């Protein structure tokens, strides 16, 4: 892909006997992409996780990274907004690093098939003109202008006619009066997670199954001694706060309906269609994304601090999600659920202080040196969108001195 990272099994730099060994805790997209980047820099890597990517019949065993919508987004994401302005600026940098990495995979026909990554048009609709003079529209217009100037491909500010072009109900929420589109990566997460897992294994990573419950600072030295690790990366998603004494983490429960998108019962949808929570009058999301050639995702919901994965097709919030989608894109009322896997649900790893990518600042009692833990968690619904950018900065944080490293 470039001089820092390759999607092929061979490492860019082979490890030496004295190469540093990094212990990564967590095997979601953040942990695996970080492992990949480290392996190509010549590090030895062990990935420790309580679970691994699964595509069996028990859909409840899937990792959060597999359940994600995995449509690349420029922040703030559809499911919510950033609170911290500094974190938002970092996220803009991280997402563009990831954009070009995923796009390079999508642009290679062989890799695209193997990794489940392709480019699609992502469309955003608005019930108010972005040029209107009010605070909300000013923010939305500024975001659109940043996207237009970011270098992403396929950007077009189409206005109200975008709804007609995409078959969207022009009267939804009082009328769709503005819209824009851009070309973005969309990822088949089951396929991609297995590809990432196999890739880091082929590059020489060791994988160990274990659950860690304690604050990493309390067990840092024991873990480093056991694994002969020079540093530890905390990439445990929702569990990241518990492993770092951070009480600002909480789940943001989400769900997606999966329907058959083969053109039989409704016109096939080939582009992503969205209305974000901060645009909708009632803060409800429209999130319609082609996942594979014949599966369409319909979402979504964002329920703060809900830990239970007990949603069903009959749960009112799920039924309302389907009703919104049917009203927004009328053809969907005829859509048939995927009989094998109709409803996906998971807990986004939210954090009130937004994404955390930094070295551990605390010091163990009696410790003679600073901690060698780097935290990389709290990505909310944006793990895939921020992955390569956060991995690059996490690697910088692992070094004693800052590196001029970017994937």
Automatic annotation (TrEMBL):
Binding site for D-dopa: 348, 381
Alphabetized InterPro entries for the sequence: DAO (IPR023209), FAD-dep_OxRdtase (IPR006076), Rhodanese-like_dom (IPR001763)
SUPFAM superfamilies given in the database record: FAD-linked reductases, C-terminal domain, Nucleotide-binding domain
Similarity remark: Belongs to the DAMOX/DASOX family.
Boundaries of every Rhodanese domain copy: 28-64
BP GO annotations: D-amino acid catabolic process
Cofactors named for this entry: FAD
Gene3D superfamilies documented for this protein: D-Amino Acid Oxidase, subunit A, domain 2 (3.30.9.10), NAD(P)-binding Rossmann-like Domain (3.40.50.720)
Pfam family, one: DAO
Record field: transmembrane: 20-39
Protein name: FAD dependent oxidoreductase
Keywords: FAD, Flavoprotein, Membrane, Oxidoreductase, Transmembrane, Transmembrane helix
One Gene Ontology molecular-function label: D-amino-acid oxidase activity
GO CC terms: cytoplasm
Binding positions for FAD per the UniProt entry: 64-65, 236
